[in-house]
Each structure stands twice: as C-alpha cells, then as structure tokens.
Amino acid sequence: xxxxxxxxxxxxxxxSTDPPECGRCGRAGILSARVPHNLVNARNExxxxxxxxxLCPRCDIGQPEAGALIAWFTVNAEITDExxxxxAEFIHAWASAARVPVLNESALEAExxxxxxxxx
Length: 120
Ligand SMILES: [Zn+2]
Description:
Strand order of the largest sheet: 1-2-3
Bound molecules: zinc ion
C-alpha cells in the first residue's frame, strides 16, 4: 500500500480478463479502476473512500478525458510495456475527471435512472 490521502491521483487499474460491466448501460466497458476520494460522513468527518469507475465506450464518449482514453484504446487495443507510460497519463486524466463527489453521486444516479427509463 502506497496510498497517500494527499495524493488522490493514485489510481489502481483493476486487472481482469473479462471486461468490466458498465453500471450505467449494463454492457461491457473497456477498463475499470479504483479511484480514491474523500468522503464526508454524517458526523462531518473526512474519511477516505474508494470508488470503482468503469470506462464505457458508450456512456463516457462525450466526456473529454474519457473520450481521449477511449480513442487511445481504439488505437492501441491493450496496455503493453511499451505504451504503459502513455496509457498511464490518459488513465490518470480520465480517473481524475471521473472522480465524483459523493453528494453529486446520488444526483447523478437519479439522472442516469431517469435517462435510462426515458430512453430504453
Ligand atoms: Zn455504459
């Protein structure tokens, strides 16, 4: 463990042979990562939490950092020793943008729910 609460950019890509399932559209995503973020609990204390975010080629394509990473995977297909450093830059940019404050998360979920019910 090298987790440092002051460096929330320590993103851990989840290694898996199967593609992660996107929690929004229920279809296969490209990549998932565990992203640390600060939570403020009911007693107003800050605690470290970790959220798992999935990069989805359908749901995330409109988001600039995610779009760049999706495009990167389209070109490179997979992470190798040669492109690891380049991939890491895109992954960090995406994961930083993907970090959602908890207070906004329920609002986002409601939005996704409304969106899914309205368009599926
Ligand atoms: Zn999706």
